[in-house]
């Protein structure tokens, strides 16, 4: 989930606001989400951040203002949560998405693609594009960049919200947007944080300001383990990347966000009570925020943006159709994961020796000057003869793959993953056990949570000091364990199946996540602010 990118280019583009009514998504697993018919607005064109409301909008229902960041894991998750809130609010709310201009061409194209798809699907949502501004150039890391870039937009966010022609129910802010809590306070509008990752990470973030005072050395130099209420003792080597270097501004920003999360009117988290009881209880009891009122937490997950299956099945899915049930190990590493040849060779040897079937989504290092993983050049990345030798039991897919559809396939029996939280939930939704191979952002913490707290994963030895390198022998052992070998794999499979049932029950009507969504929707409708203090 959390972003991991560096930025070079700025793109300014004009937006188009398009309103339609009544959307219904049906998934191939039979899970159906309906949004209620909301008031219809005409198509509106918006220029460089100015909202040109149609007169009918002046009487529109109170709006929930979402502030997402741009990667799919953040944007689609928040948007999906917003849609579910609309459904739960029974037509009493509308949705406005404030789009901070993405800082790279690549992200801008991605975001535009998502918005186009949402428009085509008939979602009743306003996308309001803020004017572009120059991003910071003197930053040392992505977390610092994102936090500062968002903070710079505060006056524009304030102006855009104040300009909305309808009452504002609340601002719902991405993890990195906590500086905008000040905007909400200024406008006297409630501020909620949408936490795209899990309760374990939230417990750590809420605890971080106090940990910062207690642990005066770098975490990796401290003796013993880190105490995060609600979790087993956390080895410092499992802390998220931005926490590992206190001299880096990324760390300072993490401590800042941790402090500010506690100030929000509520934290909406993409987990279910049944998945993370202990961490959620610790947060609710105030054990993570001694001396401070704990924030109200709404676990509404799993929030997964399912799409209707395409008319023509994807090539990966067709390949899976020919494999026996639960026989294939899926390897896929999120939106940012990639490997250079030495690591790709180790994976190839490990897979070959494991003897198991596999579907490996492999992407290569960014092209010179680019910042995003490139499609894999298999001839350069893989050992000679590997594809030929494994052609009867393996598929290497060199570009973006439809991961959600793949995980839904009965042939998939285990998932070697970077451990992003969206990927994790997608896997658990289908009862697929995991082998987490953390690469960036908060994934080391997720790996620990999945193995030690949730028991749905088998542990993998990743050499963090060598850029998270994994040897062939370790991958071979891991795949054997995951796909049917020993006790650890068996337990993870059983637990993953339990979590599958828990996930599905949670979002059913009357389930724990549905009830949290209901409480939140009621809060939001109650709190709708008529004047935004222009
Ligand atoms: N994803 C995908 N195909 C790919 C790689 C990733 O569909 O080849 C999707 C995946 O299903 C998930 C998202 O991208 O929904 C990745 O989110 P996650 O939080 O797991 O990781 P991130 O990319 O944010 O690190």
From TrEMBL:
Q: Which PANTHER family match?
A: GLYCOSYLTRANSFERASE
- Compartments where located: Nucleus
- Give the protein name, as stated in the record: Glycosyltransferase
Q: Identify the domain of life.
A: Eukaryota
InterPro entries in alphabetical order = UDP-glycosyltransf_plant, UDP_glucos_trans, UDP_glycos_trans_CS
Pathway listed: Pigment biosynthesis; anthocyanin biosynthesis
Q: Which family does it belong to?
A: Belongs to the UDP-glycosyltransferase family.
Its source organism is Panicum miliaceum (Proso millet)
């Amino acid at each position: 989930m959390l972003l991991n990118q560096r930025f070079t280019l700025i793109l300014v583009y004009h937006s188009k606001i398009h309103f339609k009514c009544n959307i219904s998504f049906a998934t191939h697993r039979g899970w159906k989400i309906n949004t209620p018919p909301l008031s219809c607005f005409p198509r509106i064109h918006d220029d460089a951040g100015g909202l040109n409301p149609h007169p009918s909008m002046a009487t529109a229902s109170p709006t929930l203002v979402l502030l997402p960041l741009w990667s799919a894991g953040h944007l689609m998750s928040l948007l999906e949560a917003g849609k579910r809130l609309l459904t739960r609010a029974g037509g009493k709310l509308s949705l406005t998405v404030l789009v901070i201009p993405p800082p790279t061409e690549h992200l801008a194209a991605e975001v535009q693609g998502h918005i186009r798809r949402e428009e085509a699907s008939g979602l009743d949502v306003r996308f309001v594009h803020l004017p572009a501004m120059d991003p910071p150039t003197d930053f040392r890391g992505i977390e610092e960049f994102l936090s500062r870039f968002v903070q710079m937009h505060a006056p524009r966010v304030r102006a855009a919200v104040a300009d909305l022609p309808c009452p504002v129910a609340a601002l719902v802010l991405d993890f990195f947007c906590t500086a905008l809590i000040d905007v909400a306070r200024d406008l006297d509008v409630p501020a909620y944080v949408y936490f795209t990752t899990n309760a374990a990470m939230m417990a750590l973030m809420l605890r971080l300001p106090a940990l910062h005072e207690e642990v005066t050395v770098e975490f990796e130099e401290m003796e013993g383990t880190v105490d995060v209420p609600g979790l087993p003792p956390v080895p410092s080597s499992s802390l998220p990347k931005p926490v590992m270097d206190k001299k880096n501004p990324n760390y300072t920003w993490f401590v800042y966000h941790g402090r500010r999360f506690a100030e929000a009117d509520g934290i909406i988290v993409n987990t279910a009570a049944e998945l993370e009881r202990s961490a959620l209880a610790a947060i609710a009891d105030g054990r993570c925020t001694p001396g401070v009122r704990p924030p109200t937490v709404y676990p509404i997950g799993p929030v997964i943006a399912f799409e209707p299956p395409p008319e023509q099945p994807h090539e990966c899915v067709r390949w899976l159709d020919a494999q026996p049930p639960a026989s294939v190990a899926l390897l896929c590493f999120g939106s940012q994961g990639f490997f250079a040849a030495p690591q790709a060779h180790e994976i190839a040897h490990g897979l070959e020796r494991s003897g198991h079937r596999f579907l490996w989504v492999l992407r290569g290092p960014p092209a010179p000057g680019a910042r995003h993983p490139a499609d894999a050049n298999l001839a350069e990345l893989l050992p000679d003869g590997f594809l030929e030798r494994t052609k009867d039991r393996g598929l290497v897919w060199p570009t973006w793959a439809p991961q959600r559809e793949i995980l839904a396939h009965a042939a998939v029996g285990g998932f070697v993953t970077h451990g992003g939280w969206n990927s994790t939930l997608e896997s658990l939704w289908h009862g697929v056990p995991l082998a987490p191979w953390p690469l960036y952002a908060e994934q080391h913490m997720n790996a620990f949570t999945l193995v030690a707290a949730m028991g749905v994963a088998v542990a993998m030895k990743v050499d963090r000091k060598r850029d998270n390198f994994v040897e062939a022998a370790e991958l071979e052992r891991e795949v054997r364990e995951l796909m049917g070998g020993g006790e650890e794999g068996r337990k993870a499979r059983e637990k993953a199946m339990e979590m599958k049932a828990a996930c599905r029950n949670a979002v059913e009507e009357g389930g724990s996540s549905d009830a949290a969504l209901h409480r939140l929707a009621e809060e939001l409708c109650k709190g709708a602010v008529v004047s935004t203090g222009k």
